[in-house]
Design goal:
EC number: 4.1.1.36, 6.3.2.5
Order of helices and strands: EEEHEEHEEEHEHEEEEEH
Strand order of the largest sheet: 5-4-1-6-9-10-12-13
CATH architecture: 3-Layer(aba) Sandwich
Number of strands: 14
Shape: globular
Function: Catalyzes two sequential steps in the biosynthesis of coenzyme A. In the first step cysteine is conjugated to 4'-phosphopantothenate to form 4-phosphopantothenoylcysteine. In the second step the latter compound is decarboxylated to form 4'-phosphopantotheine.
Oligomer: single chain
Cofactor: Mg(2+); FMN
Protein name: Coenzyme A biosynthesis bifunctional protein CoaBC
Distance between the termini: 16 Å
Bound molecules: cytidine-5'-monophosphate
Helix content: 25-40%
CATH topology: Rossmann fold
Pathway: Cofactor biosynthesis; coenzyme A biosynthesis; CoA from (R)-pantothenate: step 2/5; Cofactor biosynthesis; coenzyme A biosynthesis; CoA from (R)-pantothenate: step 3/5
Number of helices: 5
């Protein structure tokens, strides 16, 4: 571990998409690459933090120097996050699926069996809200993301209060921004004190700026 302002701090980072099975060979997923979460973990490690990195199946390799816990589903991600506690801070950068398939098959659903399959959905646990609202052992700083396509700041501000986290990084993921799966990010930091619009910059630079802010907040 490098020496730095976050030396001795344990920080939990979630990253990547989740995969929700339809049957043993099929799943529902989303386009998260894991790039922003991985960059955040790297930036925290560079400042000396001990990072537990709970990741769904991502496109990018997990950060060197982190304790990596690989999961598939939202339920598994919640269990891994709970098992990794306590932490001084928790950053929820994963794009967790909102739903899982309640009637997922134990064996492969056959194409020729009595017509089209009927998938039933059930809500996934909200990991960010669960941790934010912990009665004991809540991390001192809980940070979430709000990826929105409309009314970005208003929706993210409401989300911060609804979930109970300390900070939200709001970003516009409309396709024309090129943010989802791209190199750059363009975020607004929302805290209890107000909003702060950060310039468009690389996900790595965004991660370094966030890590600096986290160090100032909890070091
Ligand atoms: O509600 P929404 O999915 O837009 O919230 C996004 C934020 O909540 C992100 O920080 C994401 O990691 C987190 N989240 C979570 N568990 C869920 C859904 C979202 O931790 N089931």
């Amino acid at each position: 571990l490098s020496d730095g302002p976050l030396k001795g701090k344990h920080i939990l980072v979630t990253s990547g998409p989740t995969h929700e099975p339809i049957d043993p060979v099929r799943y529902i997923a989303n386009r998260s690459s894991g790039a922003q979460g991985t960059a955040i973990a790297k930036a925290l490690i560079a400042l000396g933090a001990q990072v537990t990195f709970v990741t769904g199946p991502a496109d990018v390799a997990p950060p060197a120097g982190a304790r990596v816990v690989a999961v598939q589903t939202a339920k598994q991600m919640l269990d891994a996050v709970t098992a990794a506690a306590p932490a001084d801070a928790a950053i929820f950068a994963a794009a967790v699926a909102d739903w899982h398939v309640a009637n997922a098959g134990d064996s492969k659903i056959k194409k020729d069996k009595s017509g089209l399959p009927h998938l039933e959905f059930a809500e996934n646990p909200d990991i960010l809200a669960t941790v934010s609202q912990m009665k004991t052992g809540r991390p001192a700083l809980v940070v979430g993301f709000a990826a929105e396509t409309d009314d970005v700041i208003a929706n993210a501000t409401a989300k911060r209060l609804r979930k109970g986290c300390d900070w939200i990084l709001a970003n516009d993921v409309s396709p024309e921004t090129g943010i989802m799966g791209g190199v750059d990010n363009d975020v607004t930091l929302i805290t209890a004190d107000g909003t702060e619009d950060w310039p468009r910059m690389s996900k790595q630079a965004t991660a370094e700026m966030l890590a600096d802010r986290i160090a100032k907040a909890i070091a």
